[in-house]
């Protein structure tokens, strides 16, 4: 039998967090410290029991201790969702369908859904918000997206961090921002749900490219050019798929790209670095023991671009290396002549 929820306190805001990884753990830390009731679903029953006994996640950010007056761990996803008004999805995009498989299609009726996922549904090549609308009938007006720049590891260390909440409903986005704001987290709403979500997907692909370049021993000069060219690539793609005016110099766009491209905590950059140093995809995945969203995202973006025909040389190079097994050295020799 699954370990079900036991309500301990009465609070105004009830938030479900679905996922047991580092970003889910960081969000639970933020929300629970702000005294929201956090119904935390983790698939692994042993992890749930460990959290109940020792008050920390045994696998990720294990230095963070939780107050179990506000954090209610469970491996019963139906109970977790039913007990909450806000539902945060914080599982890798490739596993969303599996994670939600036991939920009925009306499970999210009347709830606000927040995607903390920076990836797309593989093979279907659709955003998480679009998938949730199609499969679970959650309208866009009831969906938000969390964008960075913000790494879970720095949240755990209580380093000053900034979040952007993308939405088509600004009052709801502002309410959620209030749940996140504290002495080390600032959060602001932005009316660009789809643009922020696509940018969050592509910046992981760019981080892979930066990692590959580093693994190939390209220097800081090259990476600066790579990232600046990437902004034009992102702009071309966004204009091709949903042409509205947006300032990509904002922290939800450029800021999120920079932290993912340069940070020591970026798993996509780390994954790319391993590929550049000669690891196979499989061996890099095994050694990391974490999901690099960009690996799946680059295939989705590449396939979407078959229709758009946008000039995306960086994305194409990463796709060739990861999926067509072209030598990183050879591919980046070609790429470097396309950058300006």
From TrEMBL:
MF term (GO), any: glycerol-3-phosphate dehydrogenase (NADP+) activity
Protein origin, superkingdom: Bacteria
Catalytic activity, as annotated: sn-glycerol 3-phosphate + NADP(+) = dihydroxyacetone phosphate + NADPH + H(+)
Residues bound to substrate: 118, 267-268
Xref: PROSITE patterns: NAD_G3PDH
Keyword field: Lipid biosynthesis, Lipid metabolism, NAD, Oxidoreductase, Phospholipid biosynthesis, Phospholipid metabolism
GO biological process, one term: carbohydrate metabolic process
EC number(s) on file: 1.1.1.94
UniProt-annotated catalytic positions: 203
Residues that coordinate or bind NAD(+): 95, 152, 267
Domain named Glycerol-3-phosphate dehydrogenase NAD-dependent N-terminal: residues: 14-171
Sequence ranges assigned to domain Glycerol-3-phosphate dehydrogenase NAD-dependent C-terminal in this UniProt record: 192-329
GO CC, alphabetical: cytosol
Protein name: Glycerol-3-phosphate dehydrogenase
């Amino acid at each position: 039998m699954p370990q079900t929820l036991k309500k301990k306190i009465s609070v105004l805001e009830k938030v479900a967090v679905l996922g047991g990884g580092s970003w889910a753990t960081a969000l639970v830390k933020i929300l629970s410290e702000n005294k929201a009731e956090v119904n935390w679903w983790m698939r692994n029953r042993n992890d749930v029991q460990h959290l109940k006994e020792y008050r920390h996640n045994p696998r990720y950010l294990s230095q963070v201790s939780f107050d179990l007056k506000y954090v209610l761990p469970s491996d019963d996803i139906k109970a977790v969702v039913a007990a909450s008004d806000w539902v945060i999805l914080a599982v890798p995009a490739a596993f969303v369908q599996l994670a939600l498989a036991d939920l009925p299609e009306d499970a999210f009726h009347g709830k606000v859904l927040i995607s903390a996922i920076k990836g797309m549904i593989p093979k279907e090549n659709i955003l998480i918000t679009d998938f949730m609308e199609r499969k679970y009938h959650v309208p866009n007006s009831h969906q938000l997206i969390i964008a960075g720049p913000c790494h879970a590891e720095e949240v755990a260390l209580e380093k000053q961090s900034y979040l952007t909440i993308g939405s088509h409903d600004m009052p709801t986005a502002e309410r959620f921002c209030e749940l996140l704001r504290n002495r080390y987290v600032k959060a602001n709403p932005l009316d660009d749900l789809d643009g922020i979500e696509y940018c969050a997907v592509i910046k992981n692909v760019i981080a892979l490219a930066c990692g590959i370049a580093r693994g190939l021993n390209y220097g800081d000069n090259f990476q600066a050019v790579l990232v600046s060219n990437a902004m034009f690539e992102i702009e071309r793609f966004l204009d091709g798929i949903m042409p509205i005016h947006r300032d990509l110099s904002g922290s939800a766009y450029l800021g999120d790209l920079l932290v993912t491209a340069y940070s020591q905590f970026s798993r996509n950059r780390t994954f790319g670095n391993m590929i550049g140093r000669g690891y196979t995809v499989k061996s890099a995945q095994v050694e990391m023991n974490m999901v690099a969203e960009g690996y799946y995202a680059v295939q989705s973006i590449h396939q979407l671009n078959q229709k758009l025909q946008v000039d995306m040389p960086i994305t194409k190079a990463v796709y060739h290396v990861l999926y067509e097994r072209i030598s990183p050295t050879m591919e980046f020799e070609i790429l470097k002549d396309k950058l300006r």
